[in-house]
Design goal:
Blueprint lengths: L1 E4 L2 E5 L5 E4 L4 E2 L10 E8 L2 E6 L4 E5 L2 E4 L8 E7 L2 E6 L4 E5 L17 E4 L6 E7 L7 E7 L4 E7 L5 E7 L6 E9 L2 E9 L2
Antiparallel strand pairs: 1-2, 2-3, 3-4, 5-6, 6-7, 7-8, 9-10, 10-11, 12-13, 13-16, 14-15, 14-17, 17-18
């Protein structure tokens, strides 16, 4: 299991299972077939990760997707790590794998995979919920919606971020005490956060 922050976690397991935590729920993002059991997962940041497992299996994560790498290894791999552009995996019988990836990452690419840090405050709130969001640079418009636990939509409004940032507030004075789901969506991106109203 690996977490890059409280809203982004990954876990791997038997049968090539890969599951992702988005701050609210765990879900299986893709249907992978013919992948052996995975024993280790590591993320250097929210954009770059890897996992390793039986029979020399290695998957790398970038551009918001997993890729199965081709290796000549047949030994089981039990651990993995990333340092800079170098990916490492260790396994049975003293196996150590080192592979360097040269990636040119510029500022315009850093937020193209997903919404970055989302901060809700105060949480719990009473009359006002403040929202700060790091947005993808290719996402000129963001819609924020709030749904109650019983599925009633209470708020839905578009916003325009500036330079990859969005700060706004929602009036919650008319909300009853309880948990609510805040959904942020724009383009191909979405993220859900939970907050509490306490009167």
């Amino acid at each position: 299991m690996a977490f890059t922050n409280s809203d982004n976690g990954w876990a791997v397991g038997s049968g090539g299972a890969i599951v992702h935590f988005d701050g609210v729920n765990w879900y299986k993002p893709d249907n992978y077939s013919n992948i052996p059991t995975l024993k280790s997962v590591f993320f250097s940041d929210i954009f770059n990760g890897m996992c390793a497992g039986l029979n020399g299996t290695i998957l790398t994560y970038s551009d918001n997707s997993w890729i199965k790498e081709t290796t000549s290894l047949t030994r089981d791999l039990n651990g993995c790590a990333i340092f800079g552009n170098t990916y490492y995996a260790v396994g049975d019988s003293g196996t150590i794998l080192k592979k360097e990836f040269k990636k040119d990452i510029n500022a315009s690419q850093l937020f193209t995979n997903n919404f970055g840090n989302v901060v809700l405050f105060p949480n719990p709130c009473n009359d006002v919920l403040n929202i700060d969001i790091k947005t993808p640079y290719d996402c000129p418009s963001v819609t924020i919606s709030v749904t109650s636990e019983d599925g009633v939509n209470l708020f839905n409004k578009p916003f325009n971020p500036e330079n990859g940032n969005l700060s706004c507030s929602i009036n919650t004075s008319g909300f009853k005490s309880g948990f609510y789901l805040l959904k942020i969506s724009g383009g191909n991106y979405s993220k859900t956060k939970k907050f509490l109203v306490f009167k």
